[in-house]
Structure formats: C-alpha cells, structure tokens
Write a structure and sequence with these properties.
Layout lengths: L2 H24 L1 H8 L3 H28 L4 H10 L2 H13 L4 H12 L1
Amino acid sequence: MSNRLIVLLLIIAGFGVLTTRAVMDAGYVGLFMSSFGSLSGTQIFFDLVILGVLACIWMVNDARERGLVAWPFILITLLAGSFGPLLYLVVRELRSPAPDSARARAATRATS
C-alpha cells in the first residue's frame, strides 16, 4: 500500500467522522440551510459548488485518459461533496497506472 493511498484513506476516515457528526447534529438538509444564514456562509457554499464542478470536470477528463468510469464519483460528489473526488483518487490509485502521455512526458524530462 502506497503512502499516497494511506494518506487518502486517513483523510476520508477523518472527514467521514466529521461529516457524520455534522449530519447527526444538523441533519442532511440542515447542513445546506446553515450555509445560507449569513453572506459569508453563502459565499463559502458557492465556492464549494464551484470547486465541486471543477473536480467533476477533472474526474471526467482524467478517467477518460486512464480508462476508468467517472459517473459514480460524479454522483457521489453531487450527493456527498468531497467524498466523490477523494474516493475517485483512491480507485485511481488502486486500478490505474499513469496514462501513456504522462509516462511519456516523464520519460522525456528524465532524458533531457
């Protein structure tokens, strides 16, 4: 098991505990409603929406290059936020080597 995979799993576990406690405290809908209690909360909410959309675009492109399927992780992102990209990174780490173009660029840099 790589160090990268261990770090990802630790992040998911810690964030999972935090998310579970927050949902138990406020409820799933309450998490969203509390964001709109102030202008700063609303700004943070939309900032995270933008980041989620960018993460979904990245996952689709990266999955295409690596021969993976991105739609389950996009669905998870829509329903559970950061868990989608985090889980995608775990699956990517376990199933897919770097795409040929990335390996070729690395080889080119190494010989230069």
